[in-house]
TrEMBL record:
InterPro entries for this protein: RmlC-like_jellyroll, RmlC_Cupin_sf
Name recorded for this polypeptide: Cupin
Source organism of this protein record: Thermoanaerobaculum aquaticum
Domain of life from the UniProt record: Bacteria
């Protein structure tokens, strides 16, 4: 048995404006705790760093606080909040809804999943 706490992460990243990612590696898996500030949007804050027209990563996320809205390339939208679990496929934009930070856990290794 093993365990870790996000309050003492293995690494903290600030790869883009309005975002923080705490990284925990455990049992061969990598987990992210993402904290996205109000006003954060993938197309405004991440796109300039990574390029492309939309996020091309596959995500498995568990939402803890705040709200996030996702728009797929075909225009389909969904909103997620505390207690929600989501799978997001490549080809989307995402943004924080409201005035509260959006906090979520992501199984980072899921981005390696092939469809």
């Amino acid at each position: 048995m093993s365990g870790k706490n996000f309050d003492s992460p293995d690494e903290t990243r600030r790869p883009f404006e309005k975002g923080r990612i705490d990284v925990v590696n455990l049992g061969g898996l990598t987990f992210y705790r993402e904290t996205l500030e109000p006003g954060w949007q993938w197309s405004k804050h991440v796109k300039p760093v990574v390029g492309g027209e939309s996020c091309q990563r596959f995500h498995v996320k568990i939402f803890l606080a705040g709200r996030q809205r996702i728009r797929m390339g075909d225009g389909t939208e969904m909103e997620f909040g505390p207690g929600d679990v989501a799978i997001m496929y490549p080809g989307h934009d995402a943004w924080v809804v409201g005035d509260e930070p959006n906090v979520l856990i992501e199984l980072a290794d899921a981005v390696r999943r092939k469809e």
